[in-house]
Amino acid sequence: MAKPLMAKATAVWLVDNTTISFKQIADFVGMHELEVQGIADGDVAAGVKGFDPIANNQLTQDEIDSAQGNPLHKLKLKFNPAASGEEKRRGPRYTPLSKRQDRPNSILWLVKFHPELSDGQIAKLVGTTKPTIQSIRERTHWNISNMQPIDPVALGLCKQSELDAIVQKAAAKKAAEGGVMSDDERRKLVSTEQSLEMDAAPKIPTAIEGLETFSLSDDPVEEKEEEPVIDADSFFNLPKGGAEDEDEDDLRP
Fold this sequence. Notes:
Blueprint: H1 7-17, H2 22-29, H3 33-41, H4 61-69, H5 103-113, H6 119-126, H7 130-137, H8 152-155, H9 160-177, H10 183-188, H11 192-197, H12 243-251
Helix pairs in contact: 1-2, 2-3, 5-7
């Protein structure tokens, strides 16, 4: 279902100027019912100016009257021929001014944790340019020393579903090429839900590499046969003297 322009501002206007229920407004603008209730309480969208959907050719007065008279009536967006096909328009993603300063941090996060993503995919995801991405990849960006990798979802630059979709597309491409992936790469190329459900693979600690007796299995290590202990007296166990020695003893005074 198509959503109105400036959804939050439209919700503010409907809350202030009509008696339509929060559920009806939430369904129309694509928000949660509790968010609409927060607008009515003054906790959400403080300072946002209402956007009149009637004056902007998005709703008719008859549609609003029908919704006020019937709580089960669903508001329908007025058909606007000029807006036909707008949802398919291609171009860079618009980023609000308040979030543009955080965009390099999100690019650094994507380059670090998802190097399989192409420059075009990153540019489409967070709304940036390929030269900017390339400078961050090569660490030649003018502010690279002050940048910190931050998840673009946490910054509000994209949705988790959009990030997962691009990562899954990269995983399919990697599988088609037949490349062998490590455990870390395999976890990066799946969605967040799949990655959280995976069991952690056991790894050999680097501090004890080269020890043959180390094992991850529960099988007991075979004990080596004990070497015979050599007595110190055995080194001085000289052969006994023969008949000639006895004759020399008898000749002594």
